[in-house]
Recover the amino acids of this structure.
């Protein structure tokens, strides 16, 4: 195992990558001879192999959501209630994807009551003083709050990847520091997660308020000084604080994290061959010389 100083650790938002793979490959008619739609599985596997080949991470792990309600649902029953139901193909694909990860000897984490981003937040927090460069592979904007000197977003794009560090986050969000990401989300809300936010507050107003007052808490303390057109929307302080709580990624999920378990030493050739054969991934067997 290499010295951990200056090592590279990739932590992947598993569900986001599965969804991205499903929609990217669903038109390619990846169906086995026995009727299993493998578009999400094939796409996920291809992206994962390409990542390993391109970046050669010393450490690699994947975090998944679970179907169970999370602590956020308990705090706010309408959390994510506007999202469509998960496609059945994805539900069926997940066990196969995890079987592939086991064959590839890639550590994956999930815990009922928490989301993948909470697991990622906990792992990045565990490693914050280890002098390890962490790349969070995700398209999810919420992860911006976890960015620091050694932690980056590795965001998939149509033609590759963008890496976002502190400078890119503050420029993209129009804020002064990464800590304000949570305040920004609390102020304007988040439609994708159905986080309420504050009526009348959009991105530009949120940026102006944070530039002047620094944090959501200071804005609340100074509501009497706010413009009349938005002052009356700062009456339900409990809901405003709840929005920030919902938008904040947890960094203390009770998982048994051991970085040594995430050291990527290569895959189990026979197990990989077996699962790829079962899924009829003949092209991948040939491409990655798994036989």
């Amino acid at each position: 195992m290499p010295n951990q100083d200056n090592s590279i650790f990739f932590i992947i938002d598993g569900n986001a990558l599965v969804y991205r793979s499903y929609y990217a490959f669903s038109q390619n008619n990846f169906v086995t001879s026995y009727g299993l739609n493998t578009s999400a599985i094939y796409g996920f596997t291809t992206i994962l192999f390409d990542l390993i080949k391109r970046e050669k991470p010393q450490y690699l792990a994947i975090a998944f959501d679970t179907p169970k309600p999370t602590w956020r649902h308990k705090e706010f029953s309408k959390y994510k209630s506007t999202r469509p139901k998960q496609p059945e193909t994805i539900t069926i694909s997940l066990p196969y994807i995890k079987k592939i990860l086991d064959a590839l000897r890639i550590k994956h984490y999930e815990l009922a009551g928490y989301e993948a981003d909470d697991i990622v937040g906990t792992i990045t927090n565990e490693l914050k003083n280890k002098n390890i460069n962490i790349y969070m592979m995700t398209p999810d904007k919420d992860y911006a709050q976890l960015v620091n000197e050694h932690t980056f977003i590795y965001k998939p794009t149509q033609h590759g990847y963008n890496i976002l560090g502190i400078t890119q986050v503050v420029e993209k969000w129009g804020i002064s520091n990464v800590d304000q990401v949570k305040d920004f989300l609390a102020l304007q809300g988040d439609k994708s997660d159905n986080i309420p936010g504050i009526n009348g507050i959009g991105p530009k107003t949120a940026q102006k308020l944070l530039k002047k007052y620094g944090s959501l808490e200071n804005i609340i303390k100074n509501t009497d000084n706010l413009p009349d057109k938005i002052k009356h929307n700062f009456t339900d302080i409990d809901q405003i604080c709840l929005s920030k709580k919902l938008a904040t990624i947890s960094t203390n999920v009770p998982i048994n994290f051991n970085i040594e378990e995430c050291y990527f030493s290569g895959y189990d050739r026979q197990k990989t061959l077996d699962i790829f054969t079962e899924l009829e991934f003949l092209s991948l067997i040939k491409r990655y010389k798994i036989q």
Remarks:
- The chain has a mean pLDDT of 93.
- Residues 26 and 39 are 5 Å apart (CA to CA).
- The two ends are 26 Å apart (CA to CA).
